[in-house]
Amino acid sequence: MPISFSPVLWLLAASVLIQLYYVGYYFLPFARRPEAAAADDSAAGPVSVLVCAHNELANLRRLLPLLLQQEYRPGFEVILIDDRSGDDTYLYVQQLTQYYPNVRLVSVHRTPEGLSPKKYALTLGIRAARHERLLFTDADCIPATRQWIREMQQDFARSADLVLGYSAYAPEPGFLNKLIRFETLLTGAQYLSFAWRGKPYMGVGRNLAYTQACFRTTKGFASHIRSLGGDDDLFVQDAARHGQRVAVQAEPAAHTLSEAAHTWSAWWRQKRRHLSAGKSYRFADRWRIGNFIGANLLFYFTTAALLFSRPDWVPLAVLWGVRTVAVGAAYAQIGRRLDDRLPVAWLPLLDVVYFFYYLALGISLFLYRNLRWK
User: Fold this and answer.
1) Pairing of β 47-53 and β 133-138
2) Domain spans of the chain, in order of start
3) For the chain, what percent of residues have pLDDT higher than 90?
4) What is the rounded CA–CA span in Å between residue 233 and residue 194?
5) Within the chain, what is the greatest distance between any pair of CA atoms?
6) CB-CB neighbours of 90 under 10 Å
7) How far apart are CA 182 and CA 351, in angstroms?
8) Distance CA 208, CA 166 (A)
9) Residue 2: per-residue pLDDT
10) Which residues contact 282 (CB under 8 A, 6 or more apart)?
11) Backbone phi, then psi, for 32, in 5-degree steps?
12) pLDDT tens string 242-264
C-alpha cells in the first residue's frame, strides 16, 4: 500500500528545498570564498570620508579621533556634515579643523521642504568633497581597525564603482542584543552574497563607498530624494540599474562597529525605517528576498499545522533536522567569515523569533505607513 503524506507536509518540504537553495548557492559559497589578494598600493588614491551627524556630539568625540588615526598612505580627508545640530557639534569640529587640516566642516542650517534631510545633507557633503573616492559611515559607528579606509578602497583599483561593506553591532548581554546581531548577520549574508553573485540590491550607510562618477551617473539621490530612507539601499538600486560595477568587501579589517539599540521600541522604529524602502526595490530583488523570507515563514507555519493536526512525525523530524543542520551550519560559517559570531546553540531560537518579528514589521508597515525622521 503506497504511503500518503499530508499536503501540508509537501509544503514543508518545498520550503526546506528553497532554503537549501539559498544556503547552497549564496550563503555557503560566499562564506567559503578565498580572500581577495591585496590591491597594489600604487593604484590607491586619496579618499574623502563623509560623516553626516544630527546632534551626535558624544558619538563624534569617539569617532573622529579614530578616523584621524587611520593608516592610509595616499591620504584622506574627513568631512563632517553638521545637519541642523542644536548641540556643540559645530564648535567641536571647528576646533579640530584648527589642528587637523584634513578635517572639514559642512553646515546645513535648513532642509528644503519635502526633501529627505539626510540625503540633502549628504549631497552637500559630496559636492564639497575634494577626492573622487568617497567613503561613508555614521556618527554612531567606529571603524573596526586602523586599516578600514585602506581595505574599503581597494576594489576601486579593480575598477569597482561602488563597494559594499559590513557593519556589525557590538556584543552585549541580553536576548535583544543577540537578536539584533542575528538580524544584522542574516541581512549581511543576503546583500553581500547576492552582490557577490552579481545581484546587488542594497548596502548599509554605516559602511559604504562609491566614486563621484558613480554618484553623478545615478543622478545622486534624485529618484528618491523625497523618501526618508534609502540613502544607502535605494542608491545601490539606482547604481545597479545604471550598470555600475559593485564589489563586496567583507574582510573583518574593513568592518565598522556600532552600538545596538537597547530597547525593543527603539529597534522597532529603526527597522521600520529600514524596511520602508523595500517597496521601491526592483521586482527581481523583491522576488528574491521575498522567496527567502516567505520560505522561512512557510516552514514555521506548516510545522505548526502538522504538530496540531495529522502527526507525520518521522518525515517532519527528518525535514526539521536537515533544515536545522544546513541553515545553522551556513549561519555559523558566515559568522566566522564576517568575524561576527553568535552562540550556535542560540541560532534556532533566534531564527524563529526573527522571522515572526519580521512578519510583524511587515504587517505594521502595511497598516501604518507614517514615518518620522529626526
Assistant:
1) parallel
2) 7-32+284-366, 45-263
3) 69
4) 13
5) 87
6) 15
7) 8
8) 8
9) 43
10) 201, 237, 240, 241
11) -95, 0
12) 999 999 999 999 999 999 988 98
Q: What does the pLDDT read at residue 373?
A: 44
- Model pLDDT, residue 228: 76
In a 3-state reduction of DSSP, which class is residue 334?
A: helix
The answer on pLDDT for 227 being more than 90 is no
Nearest to 159 by CA among 252, 254, 43: 43
Q: Is the pLDDT of residue 1 over 70?
A: no
DSSP string computed for 93-122: HHHHHHH-TTEEEEEE----TTS-HHHHHH
State how beta strands 162-164 and 141-143 pair.
unpaired
- Indicate the pLDDT class of residue 371, thresholds 50, 70 and 90: very low
Mean pLDDT computed over every residue of the chain: 89
Q: Is 81 helix (H, G, I), strand (E, B) or coil?
A: strand
Q: Comparing C-alpha atoms, which of 132, 192, 185, 187 is closest to residue 163?
A: 192
Domain at 45-263, CATH from 3.90.550.10, 3.90.1150.10, 3.50.40.10, 3.30.565.10: 3.90.550.10
Of all residues in the chain, the percent with pLDDT exceeding 70 is: 92
C-alpha cell of residue 92: 567641536
Cell 529626526: give the residue. Answer: 374
